[in-house]
């Protein structure tokens, strides 16, 4: 059964096609695009959220490397030697 024609002659599908907006039902989408482009993109909005995190991460990694390479734990070496003498 074919759909009945409208009494007024108004066809919403033809009206939407003629509008040419192409946003699938959101007539304001074209006006909202500025919020997600340029300086308002997701990356640019969160870029400054953690200032100094990169520098702090590199400094902490450098500290860990320096501690492993330069600082010897004399207490544990002394404890191991003393532990061996007790069991002889």
UniProtKB/TrEMBL annotation:
<dbReference type="InterPro" id="IPR012576">
    <property type="entry name" value="NDUFB3"/>
</dbReference>
<keyword id="KW-0813">Transport</keyword>
<dbReference type="GO" id="GO:0032981">
    <property type="term" value="P:mitochondrial respiratory chain complex I assembly"/>
</dbReference>
<comment type="function">
    <text>Accessory subunit of the mitochondrial membrane respiratory chain NADH dehydrogenase (Complex I), that is believed not to be involved in catalysis. Complex I functions in the transfer of electrons from NADH to the respiratory chain. The immediate electron acceptor for the enzyme is believed to be ubiquinone.</text>
</comment>
<feature type="region of interest" description="Disordered">
    <location>
        <begin position="1"/>
        <end position="23"/>
    </location>
</feature>
<protein>
    <recommendedName>
        <fullName>NADH-ubiquinone oxidoreductase B12 subunit</fullName>
    </recommendedName>
</protein>
<dbReference type="GO" id="GO:0005743">
    <property type="term" value="C:mitochondrial inner membrane"/>
</dbReference>
<dbReference type="Pfam" id="PF08122">
    <property type="entry name" value="NDUF_B12"/>
</dbReference>
<keyword id="KW-0249">Electron transport</keyword>
<keyword id="KW-0496">Mitochondrion</keyword>
<keyword id="KW-0679">Respiratory chain</keyword>
<keyword id="KW-0812">Transmembrane</keyword>
<dbReference type="GO" id="GO:0022900">
    <property type="term" value="P:electron transport chain"/>
</dbReference>
<keyword id="KW-0472">Membrane</keyword>
<comment type="similarity">
    <text>Belongs to the complex I NDUFB3 subunit family.</text>
</comment>
<keyword id="KW-1133">Transmembrane helix</keyword>
<keyword id="KW-0999">Mitochondrion inner membrane</keyword>
